[in-house]
Amino acid sequence: MTQKDALEILKMGQNVFLTGPAGSGKTFVLNEYISYLKQSGVEVAITASTGIASTHINGMTIHAWSGLGIKSVLTEYDLEAMVEKQYLYKRFEKTQVLVIDEISMLSGTQLTMIEWICRTFKHNDKPFGGMQVILCGDFFQLPPITKSSFGESVGNDFAYESDAWKFARFTICYLSEQHRQKDSDYLSILNQIRANRVTAQTIELLRSRENAEPALDVLATKLFTHNVDVDTINHKHLDTLTTATKEFVMMSKGKDFLVEGLKRSCLAPERLRLKEGARVMFVKNNYEVGFVNGTLGVVTGFNTFGEPVVRTVGGKLISVVPMSWSIEEEGKVKAEITQLPLRLAWAITVHKSQGMSLDAMEVDLSKSFVKGMGYVALSRVRSLDGMKLLGFNTLSLEVDPSVLSFDEQLKEMSDEVVGQLRSFSLDERKKIQKEFLSRVAPAEKEKKEPKKSAREITKDMLDEGLGLRDIADARGVKQDTVVAHIEELISEGVELRLDHLKKDFAYKELDVIHDAFDACDTTTLSPVYNYLLKKKKKPTYLKLRVARLFL
User: Fold this and answer.
1) CATH value at residue 38
2) Which residues have C-beta within 8 Å of that of residue 173, sequence separation ≥ 6?
3) Which of 144-153, 168-177, 508-517 shows the lowest mean pLDDT across its residues?
4) Average of per-residue pLDDT values in the chain
5) Is a pLDDT exceeding 90 seen at residue 521?
6) Position 467 in a domain
7) 85 and 148: one domain?
8) 8 A C-beta contact, residue 73 and residue 67
9) Residue 346: closest CA among 236, 192, 252
10) DSSP classification of residue 96
11) Model pTM greater than 0.85?
12) What stretch of H or E contains 246?
């Protein structure tokens, strides 16, 4: 199927599974359709199974969008609690089209829970509450790894095996053209891996790239299958930088076993060493600030608070503040860890590379432990001469036989869809597309007042005398996010009304914290936190940040 055919089918309003090999233009088709919907005034939710994938379509993770979060089980009680959240209710109320990218990394269990959530919020028994749903991805990519709050694997069923998939009756759009790889030899290698028919000649072609430097004069991204190899390379590169080192220590509270579970599931290190010039990757989502889990960048320096300033690959400058990972039960925080949402990124794991397009890479597949890992890694680069192969094993070039069988079915189903499309005249297609738009688009675009930025809204609410909790609750964000807005405004010289925030501190608590800042002679939080620990005091990270506002 061509990209044009797929776009025509999407415009007809059908639930669609958009698939095809790496580089076939799936993201391009999605973005074209999303642009079409927005121009027509249709509310579309743009999501993906992972943070890095969501950057390619300017969206957010499906877990965050749906309110599912890290839940591995969904109960009636959970749904009742979610419906009470006004920001979620409004989100679902206005959404007419739901896009989920990189569906291969979403388990069937998760898809079924999301479908249930959609029906509940939309008060509609149709699949996904009657929204048009577009799933996009390639099941030859990495399979889902579902983890609990404590980091244990709890299932890896494919999305297409779920009841939700069957219920939605997806139209299959299988893209057959290639747009990423222009190297015919390399494209042949990828197709052979995809078909489980790797020849001896292909093995020789791959071996020709062992320890061969990429032809392009760009810094190659290093891909490894295991975090331990990634960490070794990253620390080696960091040590070569001659700039000053700053260390950021993770803070924690709660029962030890809960804290340890959080640490295992969090990609931020307990001790993070950074220097100006360090390559980094964000490991948490913050859509208001403009980064997600997987966003890459370089540390350009440190701000007046001692926090790193990162320039992303997109050119955005971000002052990075610590963020929290927590376990909550019935609205109460049982355990929490706080750290900068960063890790070093001269090297990354193959899992984190999914969805990227690279000009040059170095890849080690000798320790591959999942079928499909080699295909994911090798399909990241645009040509054979852009790759340096450090090693591979037999498993890395294999794909899951069940996925291979399912893929053949998808091709046949897609061919049938093309035949059905051809049976419609151009006028008939346009009529169906117009009818769909009339159902989902507003009759008339409402004139909207210029939207205020998140920081402007925060300032207005502070001027009204609202506290951090009140602002956070009203806007459906965390108090840490509100403080980040305040810090940015202060750094820009904006005058703010803040004195009323002092009432959140206990008697003389603010003085004690300020004395600690003076004793440590720094505005960085970690040394102050450790100093107070030695004094048998353990203020929350939030209190430290708020106290710092008054220095």
Assistant:
1) 3.40.50.300
2) 1, 5, 6, 9, 10, 16, 17, 18, 19, 29, 414, 417
3) 144-153
4) 84
5) no
6) yes
7) yes
8) no
9) 236
10) -
11) no
12) strand 245-249
Tokens of 166: 């069957």
Cα separation, 95 vs 89, whole angstroms: 10
Q: Which residue range is the domain that position 528 belongs to? A: 454-548
Rounded distance, CA 368 to CA 327, Å? 32
In tens, the pLDDT along 18-27 reads: 998 876 788 8
* Residue 448 covered by a domain: no
CA atoms within a 13 Å half-sphere pointing along the CA-CB vector of 26: 27
> Is the Cβ–Cβ distance between 479 and 472 less than 8 Å?
yes
Contact 279, 291 (CB under 8 A): no
The CATH number covering residue 485 comes to: 1.10.10.1390
CB 188 within 8 A of CB 365: no
Return d(Cα 147, Cα 155) in angstroms, integer.
Answer: 8
In a domain, 446, yes or no: no
Confidence of residue 153 (pLDDT cuts 50, 70, 90): very low
Report d(CA 498, CA 495) in Å as an integer.
9
Token pair for residue 274? Answer: 């950074």
Is residue 184 in some structural domain? no
d(CA 191, CA 6) in angstroms, rounded, equals: 21
Are 15 and 154 part of one and the same domain? yes
**DSSP readout, 192-241?**
HHHTT---HHHHHHHHTTBTPPPSSSSPPEEEESSHHHHHHHHHHHHHH-
Characterize the bridge pairing of strands 296-302 and 279-282.
antiparallel
Helices (H) and strands (E) in the chain, counts: 22, 22
Residue 295's identity, in one-letter code, is T
pLDDT of residue 399: 85
Instruction: State how far the alpha carbon of 267 is from the alpha carbons of 208, 264, 293, 376, 377, in Å.
Output: 34, 8, 10, 21, 20
Cα–Cα distance between 392 and 374 in angstroms, integer? 8
* Residues 6 or more apart in contact with residue 193 via CB below 8 angstroms: 202, 374, 375, 378, 397, 399
